[in-house]
Design goal:
By secondary structure, this protein is α/β, with parallel strands linked by helices. Helix content is 49%, strand content 17%. The chain folds into 2 domains: 130 residues, Rossmann fold, CATH 3.40.50.2300; 141 residues, Rossmann fold, CATH 3.40.50.2300. The structure holds alpha-L-arabinofuranose.
Length: 346
């Protein structure tokens, strides 16, 4: 009986107990849901706030080409769209201005520094200062030479060696069967990694074909006006040596577009009397390709902003980032379907 009672009692207690448990569970779940909902809201608003409060210092080389202007715009747009504050500095083609800009970003204590190193050497001191201040640095577009690879977090770049190789491959195809091909080269900014890459990549392929010779090379500093001057020097040099120029390899579109007048002044019709291959793929060069004034354009992709901003966000969030990221690029030879080329936007 007791047992039964006990049982009843137990049962009663159990009933009471289970309803209590249900009630407590309901209470607990409600409280839990409210708290976690609040927490989630706080977390995501904290994340948003953190993201919105990211400050990036961006030191650009200048505005030497249509490519560069597009590259700057890509970065500004990506930062704006991500709600990231971008402190932008234009170095007007001077390394000392970039170093000053980097120092001002350090003094301002930005979260991340992004910069396009105009040349490869001479960055160690200022990058060490950034490292000591705990500010990660991302290289955009160009590489640096340093004794300490820990001075920067990552590089987002175009592949300049490959661009040089692609330019040479086009010429090798174009002049197939020819016994002798004389090439002149208009280089971009000496000392920059992109020129080194385009110079070496081109030679890597050309050196496998003894019928090809790079007979002269001049710098045009990636500028249209200097491209014109460089072309004049190249023509004079070749005339002196009695060399006929068969092909021109220009490290960017602006320089060769600037050299058209010089070529015509010397009775050389671009794209016909002399084969031209150029790098960047800005709209003006694509138009010239369609008109037969340039024979092949190698794309250098300036649209790196979104990728850089994604990497910036990962860095700030404490995530690992890739050491080197190359953007995708293509080649536009004269024999391809040129009507399919989308407007370039630069
Ligand atoms: O570093 C990329 C090069 O710099 C582009 O090919 C050129 O146009 C620019 O100014």
């Amino acid at each position: 009986m007791d047992l039964y009672k006990f049982n009843i009692h137990r049962q009663k207690r159990q009933v009471i107990h289970s309803s209590q448990v249900k009630f407590l569970m309901f209470l607990f779940l409600s409280v839990f849901m409210i708290v976690s909902c609040k927490e989630n809201k706080t977390k995501s608003s904290e994340q948003n706030e953190k993201q919105n409060s990211i400050i990036v210092g961006f030191s650009q080389i200048g505005a030497e080409s249509a490519w560069r202007t597009c590259n700057t715009e890509s970065m500004k747009k990506a930062a704006r769209e991500a709600g990231i504050q971008l402190l932008y500095e234009n170095a007007e083609q001077k390394q000392e201005n970039q170093i000053k800009a980097l120092r001002s970003f350090i003094a301002y204590q930005v979260d991340v520094i992004v910069f396009v190193p105009i040349v490869q050497k001479g960055w160690d001191n200022v990058l060490r200062e950034a490292k000591e201040a705990g500010i990660p640095v991302i290289l955009s577009d160009r590489k640096i030479q340093t004794s300490d690879e820990t001075l920067y977090a990552g590089l987002i770049s175009t592949n300049s060696e490959q661009q040089g190789r692609n330019a040479a491959k086009y010429l090798v195809e174009k002049f197939e069967g020819r016994k002798k091909v004389n090439i002149v080269e208009i280089r971009g900014t000496d000392g920059s990694s992109v020129v080194e890459g385009r110079y070496n990549g081109f030679r890597e392929i050309i050196s496998q074909h003894p019928e090809f010779e790079i007979v002269a090379s001049e710098t045009g500093d990636f500028l249209r006006s200097k491209g014109k001057e460089a072309m004049q020097l190249l023509i004079e040099e070749c005339k002196e040596k009695n060399i006929k120029i068969d092909a021109i390899y220009s490290h960017n579109d602006g320089m060769i577009l600037g050299a058209f007048d010089t070529l015509r002044k010397h009775n050389m019709e671009p794209g016909k009397d002399v084969v031209i291959v150029s790098i960047d793929a800005e709209q003006a060069a694509i138009d010239a390709l369609k008109e037969g004034l340039i024979n092949c354009v190698i794309e250098c992709n300036p649209d790196t902003g979104a990728l850089i901003i994604e990497i910036v966000k990962n860095l700030v969030a404490g995530n690992q980032i890739p050491r080197v990221t190359y953007v995708s690029e293509t080649v536009f030879p004269d024999y391809s379907d040129l009507s399919k080329i989308e407007p370039r936007g630069y």
